Amino acid sequence: MGDLSNGQAAVSVLTSPAPPAVADAFVERFVVEPAPQGALRGLSFAAKDLFDVAGRLTGCGNPTWRATHAPPQANAALIDHLLRAGARLIGKTRTDEMAYSIEGCNFHEGAPRNPAAPERLTGGSSSGAASAVASQAVDFALGTDTAGSVRVPAAWCGLVGIRPTHGRLSVAGLTPLAPSFDTAGWLARSASLMRKVGVALLGEDTAGLPEYSLVRDSSIESRATPACAAALGPAFEACAARLSAIGESSLGVDLDAAAECLRILQANEVWTAHGQWVETHHPRFGPGVAERFEAARMITPDRVREAARQRAHIVARVDGALPPGRILCLPTVAGPAPRRDASPEQLQRQRAQLLPLTALASLTGRPQITLPLGRCDGAPVGFSLLGWRNGDLALLRIAEQLCPS
Predict the structure, then answer these.
(1) Which superfamily is assigned to 12-402 in CATH?
(2) How confident is the model at residue 205 (pLDDT cuts 50, 70, 90)?
(3) pLDDT at residue 3, as a whole number
(4) Annotated catalytic, 101?
(5) pTM above 0.90, yes or no
(6) Mean pLDDT score of the chain, rounded to an integer?
(7) Is a pLDDT exceeding 60 seen at residue 294?
(8) Of 44, 48, 101, 126, which one is the catalytic site residue?
(9) What distance in Å separates the CA atoms of residue 107 and residue 62, rounded to the nearest whole number?
(10) pLDDT digit string (tens) for 14-58?
(11) Choosing from 126, 149, 190, 362, which is the catalytic residue?
């Protein structure tokens, strides 16, 4: 760990030999009544504890953050949007610490239950959002996705979840993690409800479904474990039968390099967003999160410049291989969620398997939707469609055709 001028470590880590306690999906339950009319009237939603709700602390999964910030005076823009659309807000859901994790386990608060696989974690950092939706406590939930934090918990909890086109939805009133990657997203139990929420947030779907084609890339599919790949085989067959034939394509992207590029650029933005707060208040983080913050502190400008160059190259490669109208089918995750008693080392290995699959959408700003179309070792795994930028509504319509219930 690095030293500061006052002799204190920049980041300290808390550890515990015990498995995480089972946590309620909600940090706080309350009701904010919506407008009397709207397209979402009669539906309930919850919001991840990164979204501001007027008069209530935005905790970000960390006690030091709560202690050093005042309650906001206004709602996040998306919360107001959903309230105007008629949806009732019934609480704030748990997040992994500062949203800088993908496991669904918070050292300070525990790990929300995964109703689809109770012996396993939910995935994170939108862990409580996924747990609340999967347990039917709400109809849908707002989460955030920077490096997979909607897609992964949706896949591991048997839900539909979307990372929209970067910048398509307002992030006003959302605590940032890495702004050039941060997106707000949502999760639900059905693709039809996902589309209904999407129309309310993105506008009326009046253009009709454009011509499209589906492709797969064997080098990407090989990132899933053999058992997971076998479990997703019927999903590829369903695409071919219900939507259109699936062609073969090669994106020509080194997924390990893409994951490292994402890690470096994200870490640099994380430290830019929160480094001063860390060095002022010396929060104590749980395992994994602490190490990532310390690594973020050490990122050099030269590494950032090289990663930015690599990102531009990856975007150009993907744009060439997937022009508007061409959709990539791929596994959302490499395998089922880790067990609740997984060690920090096991969780880190799982993260290393996930990021090569989640990095494409994060680096390119493209929308990706995950569908609950497979089970592996008795637990859900997700099947994804990666679309084109600003093709969110088309992607939601295609997902509804593939997963109508």
Answers:
(1) Amidase signature (AS) domain (3.90.1300.10)
(2) confident
(3) 36
(4) no
(5) yes
(6) 94
(7) yes
(8) 48
(9) 9
(10) 766 577 899 999 999 999 999 999 999 999 999 999 999 999 999
(11) 149
List the chain domain ranges. Answer: 12-402
As a whole number of angstroms, the distance between CA 200 and CA 310 comes to: 36
359: nearest Cα among 250, 226, 239, 223? 223
Q: Which among 358, 388, 391, 384 is positioned nearest to 369, based on CA atoms?
A: 384
Residue 4 has pLDDT above 50, yes or no: no
End-to-end CA distance of the chain: 50
- Catalytic one of 101, 125, 131, 384: 125
Look up 196 and say whether it is catalytic: no
Q: Which of 250, 179, 176 is nearest to 220 (CA)?
A: 250
**Alpha helices, H only, 68-139:** 77-84, 127-134
pLDDT in tens, 363-392: 999 999 999 999 999 999 999 999 999 999
At position 187, the amino acid (one-letter code) is: L
Instruction: Classify the C-alpha dihedral 344-378-154-331 as positive or negative.
Output: positive
Residue 74: strand, helix, or coil: coil
d(CA 185, CA 11): 30
Tokens 């993908």 -> residue: 102
Residue 149 annotated as catalytic: yes
Q: How far apart are CA 166 and CA 366, in angstroms?
A: 7
Number of helices (H), then strands (E), belonging to the chain: the values are 12, 15
CB 380, CB 354: distance < 8 Å: no
* C-alpha span between 77 and 53 (Å, rounded): 10
Q: How far apart are CA 269 and CA 311, in angstroms?
A: 14
Contact 143, 161 (CB under 8 A): yes
